[in-house]
Amino acid sequence: MVILALMTTIQRITVEYQRRMNTVLQYIETHLDEPLSLEMVAEVAMYSPYHFHRVFRTLMNEPLNEYINRRRLEKAAADLMHRNEILITDLALRYGFSSNSAFTRAFKKFYGVSPSIFRVQLPTKYSKIRIPKSKNGQPDFLFEKYLWSITNLKNWIDMNAQIMITQMPEMELAYVTAIGHTQVAEAYTTLLQWATPKGFMTLPTTKMVTVYHDSFKVTHPDKVRISAAMTVAKEVKEEGVTGRMQLRAGTCIKGSFEITLPEFEKAWSSLFIWMNEQGYKKADQHPFEIYHNDYRTHPEQKCVVDLYIPVAV
């Protein structure tokens, strides 16, 4: 009985840590352009700075300052990807660096290239990259191979997707956080364990949704933050590790697919290429997926899914 009580207590404490971490991650994400000290963030979590530092490092596998610095650099990289008009100097100031040179040093240390070179080499700007030449003056083979890949993706999406511009309504979601792409399945298992006894899975309005808070182009796959989510009514409250979020209404590129699991990367890459080809710019909101079936019951193990990229209008 003592051991069982101890395990129950540990489980309750772990759930409370994870619940508060949901709040902390949302707070950090919306305040990256402001000063963020350990004391400030610990207050959001309602822990002492010393205790919070230990909890954060254990759950996130990196210290708070390192996490904040990484997220600022990744946000800056995302801005370089999607906002041609923004100056690198402005990015340095926006994300709290003391100077342009300090930002450039930190960015180069993290990504291996300077912000200006990163912007030029972006795959999403393939149409604006000048063709590099080899020493003999011939087009570089890797660039030819890259253009071949882009062409293939454009052809693939033409054959495998229905694309449209749509107005998405506001959506209320319950979610479980996954840190790293390998943790998504476990996050969905936890979400279903919470939702099934409540009868949410039998409601005809319930949809399963995956929200990508980070881009695989700028964040390591082991550190991407992904929400395993489902649509719920507004009155549904947070409980345990299951948090609540709201996806704002807005204009989205919608790509409808029927694809296998290994084809998701291809679907997303081709949809972003379509976005750039059509002259759209990604909005400051997270891409997401809405599923319309259980792929395990599909005769070809395919997902019937809509991919959404919020765009600026």
Automatic annotation (TrEMBL):
In terms of SMART domains, this protein maps to:
AraC_E_bind (SM00871), HTH_ARAC (SM00342)
Alphabetized UniProt keyword annotations: DNA-binding, Transcription, Transcription regulation
> Which parts of the sequence belong to the HTH araC/xylS-type domain?
22-121
Kindly indicate whether the keyword Transcription belongs to this entry.
yes
Q: Which SUPFAM superfamilies match?
A: Homeodomain-like, Probable bacterial effector-binding domain
**Gene Ontology molecular functions:** DNA-binding transcription factor activity; sequence-specific DNA binding
Does the keyword section mention DNA-binding?
Answer: yes
Q: What protein name does the entry list?
A: AraC family transcriptional regulator
